[in-house]
Amino acid sequence: MLPLPVLEEIQEELLNYRGSGMCVMEMSHRSKVFQTIIDEAEADLRSLMGIPENYKVLFVQGGATLQFAMIPINLMKFGVADYIVTGAWSEKAYKEATKFGEIKRLASSKDKNYTYIPDVSDLPVSDNADYVYICENETIHGTTYQRLPNTKGKVLVSDQSSMFLSKPCTVSDYGLIYGGVQKNVGPAGLAIVIIREDLIYPDVDSRTPIYLRFDTYSANESMYNTPNCWAIYVCGKVFKFLHNIGGLAEMQKINEEKATILYEFLDNSKMFTGTVAKEDRSVMNVPFVTESKELDAEVVAASKAAGFDNLKGHRSVGGLRASIYNAMPKEGVEALVAFLKDFEENYGK
Ligand SMILES: *Cc1c(COP(=O)(O)O)cnc(C)c1O
User: Fold this and answer.
1) For ligand 1, what atom is nearest to the CA of residue 89?
2) CATH 3.40.640.10 in the chain, residues?
């Protein structure tokens, strides 16, 4: 979802953006008016997250998935990296990285079907690791880190796609943070990469396509070629929206309130059970199951009929999953809980 006020503003500006006589979709990315859009978007993101001066903000096409490759290609000096694998997305990132260097699975929660975050306080980090990689919120499995791993001085890289801007973030704890924007911020096809300047190496393998080098984006302010102008514009609107509601601390408060409503219901339900260890549960993605696949399917069908979309769990894990991203209002979660309660109470009657 996107916040309704954002969609309304976009609708208002659609045919004539601020007197330009054009839609943002029609503009040259080299125009003054688009330059202002991208500059404001970056400035608003910087102030929202408190991004330090020595970090670059890059707008990169190709979604989060392209970062699975760009990160190892650009960040490995020694050709070594450690990955903590906690679900589908870190597994994919790990697999992609193995094409480019010596990649270690530093820890994993596969033994329990990725339903928890392993103890990351004292892991055997490789001496020559160029970075330690995490997916901070596993979208499909519904886990999130409460504490960041102890990387023993190594650079921390985090995929924040499904939790981006859901709460305050201390950027200086990381070497690189990235997120595909379509979960929490804007239209698909854009990733935002926040990278410490000294990690933008000029001497990556010379065969690397120019478009896959972080220094290309950095040197050209994300406009080496035509960027995803429309997505940048919409993201900029969402950044302003977040400022207007009081920033990320306020967003976190709202998100936690929403998640609590749903988890409290699941914890007290006899029919539905959350699948994730309590201390590692995500505030954004809430997977849950009934006692059987058949009943899961019945709930999904009934929820669809009642007007709830996308409750079916990811095909790789089954069950149900409620994604309650930033723009999902509290009323949406309350309505879902009321529906599930009613389903449980009246089942078989
Ligand atoms: C959705 C998602 C991705 C993939 O995003 P794309 O933009 O579709 O490539 C990667 N990581 C996480 C955590 C995600 O939730």
Assistant:
1) 11
2) 4-244
Domain range 4-244, its CATH number among 1.20.1250.20, 3.40.640.10, 3.40.50.2300, 1.10.510.10: 3.40.640.10
Instruction: Among 61, 162, 193, name the best residue to mutate to test ligand 1's pocket (greatest count of ligand atoms within 8 A of Cβ).
Output: 162
Residue pLDDT tens, the chain, 349 long: 999 999 999 999 999 999 999 999 999 999 999 999 999 999 999 999 999 999 999 999 999 999 999 999 999 999 999 999 999 999 999 999 999 999 999 999 999 999 999 999 999 999 999 999 999 999 999 999 999 999 999 999 999 999 999 999 999 999 999 999 999 999 999 999 999 999 999 999 999 999 999 999 999 999 999 999 999 999 999 999 999 999 999 999 999 999 999 999 999 999 999 999 999 999 999 999 999 999 999 999 999 999 999 999 988 888 999 999 999 999 999 999 999 999 999 998 8
Q: Which stretches of the chain are assigned E, i.e. beta strand? A: 55-61, 80-85, 102-108, 132-135, 137-138, 143-144, 156-159, 176-180, 190-196, 273-274, 285-289, 320-323
The CATH number that domain 248-346 falls under is 3.90.1150.10
Whether the model clears a pTM of 0.90, i.e. scores above it, the answer is yes
